[in-house]
Known about the structure:
By secondary structure, this protein is α/β, with parallel strands linked by helices. It folds into two domains: about 5-55, Orthogonal Bundle (Arc Repressor Mutant, subunit A), CATH 1.10.10.10; about 70-250, 3-Layer(aba) Sandwich (Rossmann fold). It contains ten helices and 15 strands. Strands 6-5-4-9-12-14-15 form a seven-stranded parallel sheet, with helices on both faces. Strands 1-3-2 form a three-stranded antiparallel sheet. Strand 4, helix 6 and strand 5 form a beta-alpha-beta unit. Helix 5 packs across helix 6. The two termini are about 20 Å apart. Residues about 255-265 have low confidence and may be disordered.
Amino acid sequence: MLAEQRRELILERVRAAGGARVADLTDEFAVSDMTVRRDLEVLARRGLVDKVHGGATLPTSRAIEEPGFEAKSVRELAEKHAVAAVAARLVAPGQAVAIGAGTTTWVLAQHLADVPDLTVVTNSVRVADELRATHMVVLTGGVRTPSDALVGPVADQVLSSLHVDVAFLGCHGLDERAGLTTPNLAESQTNRAFRRAAGRLVVVTDSSKWGTVGLVSFAGLAEVDVLVVDSALAEPAREALEGRVGQLLLAPPVDPGAAGGSSASS
C-alpha cells in the first residue's frame, strides 16, 4: 500500500470514529509505530486531523476557521507553485482574467507576470501588487477579510458589471458533497459573483484541501470547468472528482523557485 493510500484510510477511520489511536492503526495496517506517527504528522500539517497524545482526533472549528494570509502563504508552497505553473498555461495573451483572493491564486499571479497583454480583475491586494507593473489591473474594492480578500457589496457590484474570459478561484475546502467551500459568508457571495462574471471557471488548490468543509459552499463540483490540484491527491479523491468536474489536471512537482512548470496529466 502506498503512503498516500494509507493516509487516506487513516483519515477515514478518524472521521468515522472522531479519532484513532496509534496502537490500533499500527495493528490494522501492519506498519510500525513510527510510520503511523509520520502519517499523522502529514495529515496534521494539512489541517485534516489534530495530533493528540497516542493518536489523532478530528480538527476543531474547521468550518469557521479562517487563517490569515501570512499563515497560509507558507503552507504547501511547492504544491502551490506546481498547481500555478499548470494553471498559468490555461491563459492566452490578450485575455481578460479574474483572479480571486488566496495564497494559491497569489502564487498563480507570479506565474502570469510574463503572459502578455492581460487585463486582470481581482479582489486581492496581493495579486494586484504582483501584476500592476506588467498588466492592466482592476481591483474591486470591498471589506478586507483575515485572508486578505476584498469582499462585500462593493466588490460584488463591481463584478456584476464585468465579463471575463476565465476566473481562477481557490478554496478553503474541497469535498465530494459540499463542493467548494469557505468559512466566510461574505467571501462566498463574492466568489459567486466571480463565477457569474466568467465564461470559464478554473479552481486552483492543493491536495490538503480535499475533505475539508468550510461553513458555506460557493460552487458545486459540476460548476468547475477545470480543477488543477497537485499530484499528491490520493487515488480515491481523484476517482471522486473525475466524474464531477469538467476536467481534472494533476500538477507534477516543481521547484518552488522556478517560474515555469512541467506538463500536467488528467
